[in-house]
Design a protein that fits this description.
Number of strands: 8
Radius of gyration: 17 Å
CATH topology: Rossmann fold
Strand content: 15-25%
Largest sheet: 8 strands, mixed
Structural class: alpha/beta
CATH class: Alpha Beta
CATH architecture: 3-Layer(aba) Sandwich
Strand order of the largest sheet: 1-2-4-3-5-6-7-8
Order of helices and strands: EEEEHEHEHHHEHEHH
Length: 255
């Protein structure tokens, strides 16, 4: 574990295993500790990097709002300064949104892309799903945040407000923008997700070299509800070549 200055923030990260580089990008409101139970899916085959993004986990908050653009630029700086080679990017929720922006900004840094419950436009979130926390949830998440944050648990409501404001107005990509994604991409979503299935299908159809997985019986928290399903799909995608489809429809146009 170490800290590195990335632009205007001292960023905490950790490295596990050896092999091709994989960068795991956590959700909003939480931090890279969410990946502790799933590292065994990756460390035997990959050099795995986990990072706490600005304002999350062991990386401090900074003045001003949070934006996906700023976090994508932080991630690009991390890939350039620490990883030093193209990496597979695996992101959940906000982490998926950041990964998508990185793939568009610096395609040379991305091998493969796994987007779990991400959006390319903020209107992909179902109405009413970006809401305030109740007191019990806020207290629990503040306590969890305070276990490691240099800003203390009392700063969590500030971070939560920044994340909610960001997700209500960003990202603002279009289907046309998605055509520029060069990386082979796996899109994963829960069948009862806060991200609408229509939006997820638009994301899948917009990225030229993409595949789609819908995990049954799960919500936006599918990485907690069925981690084996999500991360076994991810590991298989990262370690294998595409299986030729015998009756291609969408993929037939790109063959």
């Amino acid at each position: 574990m170490a800290n590195i200055q990335l632009r205007d923030v001292a960023t905490w990260y950790e490295v596990h295993g050896d092999g091709e580089s994989v960068l795991l990008l956590h959700s909003g409101f939480v931090d890279s500790r969410m990946f502790a139970p799933v590292l065994p899916f990756f460390v035997d085959n990959f050099r795995v990097y986990t990072v706490d993004r600005r304002g999350h986990g062991r990386t401090p908050d900074v003045e001003g709002p949070l934006t996906y653009e700023a976090m994508a630029d932080d991630t690009i700086a991390f890939l350039d300064k620490v990883v030093g080679e193209p990496a597979h990017l695996v992101g959940h929720s906000d982490g998926a949104n950041v990964a998508l922006l990185v793939a568009l900004k610096r395609p040379d840094l991305v091998r493969k892309l796994v987007l779990v419950s991400g959006t390319f436009h903020y209107d992909g979130n179902l109405p009413g799903t970006l809401s305030e926390f109740d007191d019990q949830t806020l207290s629990r998440m503040s306590s969890r945040h305070g276990e490691v944050s240099p800003d203390g648990g009392e700063n969590f409501p500030v971070i939560a407000r920044k994340v909610l404001d960001m997700a209500a107005t960003e990202p603002t990509l279009t289907s046309d923008d998605l055509r520029a994604v060069a990386a082979r991409t796996l899109v994963i979503v829960g069948d009862d997700d806060t991200v609408s299935l229509e939006h997820t299908i638009a994301l899948y159809r917009g990225i030229p070299d993409s595949e789609l997985a819908i995990v049954p019986g799960t919500s936006h928290l599918l990485v907690i509800e069925k981690p084996d399903a999500v991360y076994s799909l991810t590991a298989e995608f990262l370690t294998t070549q595409p299986t030729p489809t015998l009756m291609p429809i969408r993929r037939a146009t790109s063959a």
